[in-house]
Sequence to fold (193 residues):
Amino acid sequence: MKTVFFDIDTQIDFLYPAGALCVPGAEKLLPALTRLNHYAAEHAIVVVSTTDAHAENDPEFRAWPAHCVVGTPGQQKPAATLLERRAVIPTVPGQYSIDGAAQVILEKQALDLFTNPNLPGLLARLNAERYVVYGVVTEYCVRCAVLGLLATGEPVELVTDAIQSLDEAAARRTLAEFSSAGGRLTSVREICA
Fold:
C-alpha cells in the first residue's frame, strides 16, 4: 500500500516558545516529528511538509499575529525535520518537479492546505493509497488536512502523539469529527513499528 506522510506546519514560529505564534507544548513534539520524517525517508515514503509562507502584510494577520513571514527564521522548519532531497511547491500555479524528492515542501498562505492550487496535481502524482498526518495545530490546520484528505476517499491516519492543540476541547471535537468521518487514530510507535 503506497503511503504518503503529511507533516503539517511544523515551523519554528509554531514549535518553539520564542516563536511568533507558539503553540504551548509543541516543542515537546520535535523528537516524534523527527522520528516520523526520518522513518519515512528510510522506507521511501514521501513526506509532504506544509509550511505557512506569509508576506509581511498578509491578510491572515487580521485574525492571527504575524508569523511565518517568508525569509524569517520563524518561517523555517527545524533542521531535524528536514530531509536531504527536497522540492518546494509554492502557491503560484504551475508544474513543479518532485522527481527524487523525499520531502515536498508545500507552501500555503491560509489555514487549509487545499488552498494551494497545486495540491490536487501533487496528490495525483503521488497516487497514495493511505495518508498519515501529524503536526500543528490540531483544531486548525491539522483538521483541514485530515478532513480534506479523507474527502479523497483514501484511508487517513492521525498520529495523536505527534499533534498539539491550542484548545483541548476543540481538539477533542476535531478528533471525534475525524473518527466519525472514517479516520483512524494512531501513534508514533504504531506507525514506526
Q: What stands out?
A: Residues 3-191 form a domain with the Rossmann fold fold (CATH 3.40.50.850).
